[in-house]
């Protein structure tokens, strides 16, 4: 049923690229801290190599992933087949947040459609690749991407998004600073 790989094989890359949604999980080191799991979509993930993926992260209600990566770097991405043969794929690794204007941003950003509200790119250096059966995952039919988040960001405009990020994305719900929050403090 399940199998462990040392890297992202061509077959697993094809599987990843077919998925319309994936999940990101991170956690703080503090045992009482909140574990975070976030669904992602909108064609935001790219396989950069056998041991690296990156995704464009849009402004949202929180920024837990960045805070947890800033603290400890641990991250897991999970992909589920909701159509076709059942499969679950997890990428375990170390992640980092790249902000606009930081070293590496231009090269990474060229791989994505920079939608309104794009706040950072999360890069994951993959340490473990693992599949499992997915027999318990229901079958769903994709209908469409929801364009509400980019539309919300476009309506807010650049200044509105910057204000929102200062107010809502500078720290985690547990008070850990995000990469964005640290950049605001330094800048």
Query: Would you give the CATH topology?
Result: Pnp Oxidase, Chain A
- How large, in whole angstroms, is the Cα Rg? 17 Å
Helix content: 25-40%
Report the CATH architecture: Roll
Largest sheet: 8 strands, antiparallel
In terms of DSSP E residues, the strand content is: 25-35%
Annotated CATH homologous superfamily: Electron Transport, Fmn-binding Protein, Chain A
Mean of the pLDDT scores?
Answer: 96
Give the CATH level 1 class: Mainly Beta
Q: How widely separated are the two ends?
A: 50 Å
Query: In DSSP terms, counting alpha (H) and pi (I) runs of 4 or more, how many helices?
Result: 5
By helix and strand content, what is the structural category?
alpha+beta
Number of strands: 8
Low-confidence stretches: none
Taken in chain order, the helices and strands follow as EHEEEEHEEHEHH
**Global shape:** globular
Number of self-contained structural domains: 1
Q: Specify the oligomeric state.
A: single chain
């Amino acid at each position: 049923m399940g199998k462990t790989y040392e890297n992202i094989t061509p077959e697993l890359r094809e599987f990843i690229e077919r998925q319309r949604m994936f999940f990101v999980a991170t956690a703080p080191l503090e045992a009482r801290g909140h574990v975070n799991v976030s669904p992602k979509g909108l064609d935001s993930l790219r396989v950069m190599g056998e041991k690296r993926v990156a995704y464009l992260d849009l402004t949202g209600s929180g920024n837990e992933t960045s805070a947890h990566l800033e603290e400890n770097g641990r991250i897991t991405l999970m992909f589920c087949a909701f159509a076709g043969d059942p499969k679950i794929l997890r990428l375990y690794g170390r992640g980092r947040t790249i902000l606009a204007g930081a070293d590496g941003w231009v090269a990474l950003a060229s791989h994505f459609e920079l939608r309104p509200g794009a706040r950072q790119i999360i890069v994951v250096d993959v340490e473990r690749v693992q599949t499992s059966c997915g027999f318990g995952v229901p079958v769903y039919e994709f209908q469409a991407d929801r364009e509400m988040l980019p539309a919300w960001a476009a309506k807010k405009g650049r200044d509105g998004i910057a204000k929102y990020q200062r107010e809502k994305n500078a720290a985690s719900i547990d008070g850990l600073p995000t990469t964005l929050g640290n950049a605001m403090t330094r800048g």
